[in-house]
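subagent[fold] <- orchestrator: predict structure for attached chain, return tokens only, no commentary.
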Amino acid sequence: MTPGARRALDAAGRLFYQRGIHAVGVDLIAAEAGVTKKTLYDRFGSKEQIVVEYLAGRDERWRAFLTPYLEAATSPGDRILAVFDASRDWADEFSGKGCSMVNAHAEISDPAHPAYPIITGQKAWMLALFTGLAGEIAPRGAARLGRTLMLLHEGALVAHGLQVFPAAVEQAREDAARLLKAAEGDR
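subagent[fold] -> orchestrator:
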């Protein structure tokens, strides 16, 4: 990626997250990045492709951010709680307005949009992660436990982004810990 294209993608990501995807046009992205609209279209082809690359990059960064948390945990339960720890730290550092995928889905609900598979794929990946880890704790109830953990996690991210109440991710982590303790007792 050329330096100009990188600046454009960085500017687009910042603007999309702060203002919303539909509220940001290519003129503003170009101006913020110090490039021409021609550069944007030559590199990305369309605003939709900029959105795709923004969301795919954000998902890639999240997965890379999460990996050391998972690797440092020593048990399946600790790995589940590590997801909440990583989410808390990510939210504090990168997501003051909530989950970028949830925010994007509020604007892009058409399955035909090229960014839609990125959004839903990220959530499917999170569900698979929780379900896989839950299977190590409660093999017979893995699907339900994974879905419940996902609901706690996603609800916490939304509550954090909307600033409904303080420490939403921390509360969800505490609730997940209680849920895991009960699941371990049911084995």
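orchestrator: received. Logging for downstream: The chain has nine helices and no strands. The two ends are 51 Å apart (CA to CA).
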